[in-house]
Amino acid sequence: MASQATLHPPVQVHLICGGKYHDFDYARLQLLTHLGMHEEARVTVSGDYRDADSGLLDGVEFLITYTCDVRPRLAEQEALRDWVKGGGRWLALHGTNAALDLTPDGVVSPRVIPVLAETLGSQFIAHPPIGPYRVEVTEPDHPLVAGITPFDTSDELYLSEYHGELEVLLHTRFAGDARGFAESSWPEGQHPVLYLRYLGDGTVLYLTLGHCRGHYDMRPAVDWWPAVDRGSWDLREFRLLLGRAVGWGLGKE
Fold this sequence. Notes:
The protein is an alpha/beta fold. The chain has one domain: Class I glutamine amidotransferase (GATase) domain (Rossmann fold). It has helices at about 25-35, 75-85, 115-120, 235-250, and strands spanning about 10-20, 40-45, 60-70, 90-95, 100-105, 105-110, 120-125, 130-135, 150-155, 160, 165-175, 185-200, 200-205.
């Protein structure tokens, strides 16, 4: 048992996990399991940003989000921005920066979360069909990625619109067609996979990896999805990154 002298002070954590087209039950369980490895993490959970502007973030020091097409109201977006600027640490995963409309012309990514996108540093626009790609290390000396070598994953490769200055730690490259999305044609370019966004006294850490989907998660668009997708969740590198990100959020650099 740890002595009182070695115990970390409690850290109030809030996890937001919910939305569309992903296995949020799986993601929630995995994230809570990682948080459960730290006794000082005192965790509350919700499925959206409701009341972010009126009490949800009171006392919260570390925010984790795994969402897709969850669109906070403007006042909630502004409250999230102000919370980060005031010193909050936000670990944003995978589809947190996504707003999606299904149309006859493909999936449209409407620019309806401007303050959220500016706070996060990005807004999702499209991804090519899920398949293997290489993740490269941009800043090998940074503690969050130290010792990690380039690795291959099979996940959604995020093609996004970026806002503000980003410190990119991991990246990938892509050129080609994001079939099924309205903005489908992408020239050769580098795309962040893990980055830091500094805002006021706080920081956003964004990791685009982590797609997961079960048989029932595409409803109502598709009644039964034939495969269970776990994306990067089974990769040693992803689990290492996630563990370090949680430690970062709890102030354990």
